[in-house]
Amino acid sequence: MSDTRIAIVLGTRPEIIKLSPILRVCDRRDVPYTLVHTGQHYSDELDSVFFERLGLPEPDYHLGVGSGTHGAQTAEMLTGIEEIVTEEDIDVVVVQGDTNSVLAGAIATSKLDAELGHVEAGLRSFDREMPEEINRILTDHAGDHLFAPTEESADLLRDEGIDESRIYVTGNTIVDAVEANRALAAEKSTVLDEYDLTAGGFILMTAHRAENVDDRDRLVNILTGIDRIASELDQPVVYPIHPRTRERIEEFDISVPETIRLIEPLDFLDFLRLEDTASLVVTDSGGVQEETCILQTPCVTVRDSTERPETVSVGANTVVGTTPGDIVDGARAQLSKPTDWDAPFGDGNAAERILDIVLPSHTENKR
Ligand code: UD1
Ligand code: UDP
């Protein structure tokens, strides 16, 4: 058994889902770890429901940071993580993705005598207006072990002058998570019956990105475009709505078209079941672009850019922006393509590979 002391830091829905395969492999290999939850997400439907459904342990530390301005939120997390890494004499901190929780983990670790592992390294939208883009770049440049999901993302790190010795192509842990839960979702989830949906007979949407939903015009345009697709296909739209978007819809006094059914955010099994059976998914989520690609479900991305261009090049995803006409045209184009693409995110063993790298590297460095 390794004597490397690992801390795994998470704070939001996608981090819980994408780090779950690493926690599982740690358990299987009997590797102890310290689990730190920043508290960036705290509503049950974005947080505890995933711990329950995915059978994850209670965090060892919960920083309870909650919502706030970017600076205040990141600063509070940074202070908390620094204390834990110091007190627990942590050797390696593992973070995943591009949220403020990730940036806080990266900055705290880079100032201490601990190594930083970044899961999902090397993604770039090239849109520096997105807070996530800044978080990714800073985290990759602070990181010691950069786990790129694909060769393309590894190349982007090389292009930024990052040394080859820090870069590993591991695949994306979302493949591990989908493989572990897809059949279970088909067996256990009753979500289709619950919402009176038939496989192949509905559209699934998600939208929560700040640049889309904090702007009234963009949000109205997205809803209008999706309403038009729904009318054209004569299919209902089901929209598990992120609390950020629900707040904006109320604040902006937007009336949501009747074709679009707002429901509460779903747990991972129910959501995976909907992604697996929808005729089309329209989203601005990063994780959803990957999952639809893995599940062979056509995807339309309502953003101006994507940091997952592999989904577009294999033919699984069309990036359309947010004007209603472009959304409709993009949906038509995507639906006319075959769905037999090869998913580019790895073989479902990313978590195993990541732990192989994290554990021996530290032991060797210490010798
Ligand atoms: C965050 C990430 C985003 C990620 C998303 C995953 C950053 C900068 N953004 O966005 O990259 O895609 O998580 O879902 O890190 N709220 C609740 N309950 C919660 C959490 C938030 O009601 O548990 C509401 C609050 O009004 C809050 C707002 O949502 O102000 C935004 O939350 P925040 O964590 O700042 O950003 P997200 O939009 O969730
Ligand atoms: N997801 C979920 N329930 C929902 C919506 C999304 O379980 O109602 C999952 C989805 O399967 C994916 C992750 O949440 O794994 C994506 O999170 P989100 O879109 O919030 O963040 P992003 O990936 O854009 O950072």
UniProtKB/TrEMBL annotation:
InterPro entries: UDP_GlcNAc_Epimerase_2_dom, WecB-like. Residues 28-358 form the UDP-N-acetylglucosamine 2-epimerase domain. It holds the Pfam family Epimerase_2. It comes from the Archaea. This is UDP-N-acetylglucosamine 2-epimerase (Non-hydrolyzing).
